[in-house]
Amino acid sequence: MANKKAVPKPKKDTLIEAKPSGPFHFKGSNFHVLFIGVVVVLCFALYGNSIPNGYSLDDEFVLHGDTTVQKGIAGIPKLFGMRYAWDQKGAYGYRPVVKASFALEDQFFGVSPHPGHIINIIIYALLIVFLFYFLRKILFDKVSDYFLFFVVAIFLSHPLHTEVVDSLKNRDAMLAFIFGLFCTYAFVKAFENSGMTKRIVWIVIGCASFDLGCLSKFDTRLFLGITPLVLYFFSDKKVRNSLLSILFIIIGFFVSLIVKRHILPKTEYHRTFVFYENPLLNSHWYQRFQLGFASLWFYIHKLILPKDLISYYGYDEFHPFPKWSDGNVLAGIVIAGFIVWAGYKLIMLFKEEKSGMDVWLFAFLLFMGTLIVYINVVKVGPGIVAERMMFIPSVGFALLASLLLFKAFKASLTASIHWSKYSSMYLVSLVLIVLFSGRTIARNPNWMSHLSIYEHDAKVA
What we know:
By secondary structure, the chain is mainly α. The N and C termini lie far apart (85 Å). The longest helix is centred in the N-terminal third of the chain and has 26 residues, at 113-138. The protein contains 17 helices and 2 strands.
């Protein structure tokens, strides 16, 4: 009787996914440690020169000018019972989570901006890592880790993120993003579990995470749309799960509003804007269509070509009431037309169940759905437009940019991408990442102080 040949078992700690079919994925603790380490190193390489920066634009309203924050841990309970910021007329807003982070910072490191800049870089690195693993989870059967590396590299290096990372005050945007992303992750976990107890636990965690995000910054409201979008594309009972997620998040949000009303002192005051901050506040939505097209063009071209960056795009820098013949408006109309055409084509291909079209359509809807909130038609805010507003939409942008790159070089979304075969794609990507990274590093020192950001941006504006 012939001896059977022993089949060698794969090593547990190999870097390569042993799965015989499906997208290529790395495997093992070595990969995870290496990946996290590389992300942290890259974040400090790009933003390390921001550590010597001091306090800058608007930090005085929420950080070093707040005596309650300076009390450290002892001041945290009071922070949850007071407003976020104040002006000459009164206090407004409610973002106790981010202010609590500053209180913890002051407790352990004293009143100094430099530890804050280090913490901002660490938070950014954590966000990048979480984003990778979140996308890896929902797209595990759709794309390879190589594709996700391209997505993460574009997002990590994008110069529009400098306003969020370099400005201590804008830490709220990163915390809102992290909590919102974890909300979506929790609902994905809830609806993949068949056990009722685990499902309820994950739903409660998701609602709590959404509320914590809103207590950091109200940008988390975007995940009221992102969560059902993810569940529709990447869960079994698409429509039911999407609708239930919206319902549970809204219920949890209203519960938090009731609690907030009992905690905060009653006031009828809301933040007021002067004319130069945003002259559109008393206008009606139907008067802002031209501005909507101009804003759309502004964001698209800044994402593609982030050259001249400034911290404030208020009156006289960005025309609030452009004419239909304005070049920015016309460019926005062309972009809008292309978006409508592209959306229609993607929906038709998705209905035909073309391979990979679910990823394309998801990326498209994620990008456009989060971007359109900020084009000033439905709602306006301070500064008319702002680079920080593209922080969450840039995830969709990075996904679409990577999809277009893979399409242009005919690379598989699921296979391992070797240098020998796709050297041209790697070189093009490397040039893009180097240009983005160089612009990011050059922008960081502009946020050194109030004076430095004013001086630089006044020359560019």
